[in-house]
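Page 42, continued from yesterday. The earlier attempt failed because a stray header line got pasted into the input along with the sequence. Redoing it now with the clean sequence only.
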Amino acid sequence: MNLSFEVALAARYTSSTQKIRILSEHLVGREAYCPGCGSCPISRHANNNPAADFFCPNCGEDYELKSQRNRFGSTVVDGAFGAMMNRLRAVQNPNLLLLTYEAPTLEVSNLVVVPKQFLTPDIIQKRRKPLSALAKRAGWTGCNILLQKIPDVGRIYLVKDRTVEPAATVIATWQRTLFLRMQGDFVTRSWLINVMRCIERIGQCTFSLDQVYAFEGELRELYPNNRHVREKIRQQLHLLRDNGYLDFLGRGKYRLAG
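This time it went through. Structure tokens are written below.
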């Protein structure tokens, strides 16, 4: 994978934002493969597509690309809050591609995909202040995507610190969490994702039920209407086991599968 931007393509643009958009879209269209099926290259949507920038002609996955110079932090700035919430409910909600680059070399340093099953309403933050009445889009309200609420398994590196990750590893990690798409509603999926985050924070491949129970207070704050948090934790662990994400070892012990 060639990680260098083709700088000459943006020579006629004066806006740095416009230049990076042109260069990053060209690089992804030239070099990136679909992490869902491995097909390469992925194709660009027409410019007027409101939701996605790329699609895989083989499996049909959609991708939205966001690029910036510095590493993405705990949040990603996105567009209109209402449009985002509508997209989450759509069948063709795109996966999220996050690209960072280095200057002045203009080379990709990181390329991360967040599969769409991890994009749930509880990680979308509505910005506090809409645009003023004097603005062109008066009343428009933006949103942020809260990356810190996405478990590590939901942030899959195609390129990490200028190193291209093996495609087989990327595809296997992608396949590992596809079962989340089969969950019937956002609340069910949200519970599973938050329990996955708790398991990651334990920091061990093998862990006990009691170690997950240690997050009971945090989960109770997230779901204040649920009066049976421990029972819900056990239910999520069973679902993760049944979908091949965990192995049950007996006597309250679990292990991350694979």
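Notes: The two ends are 27 Å apart (CA to CA).
Reminder to self: strip header lines before submitting.
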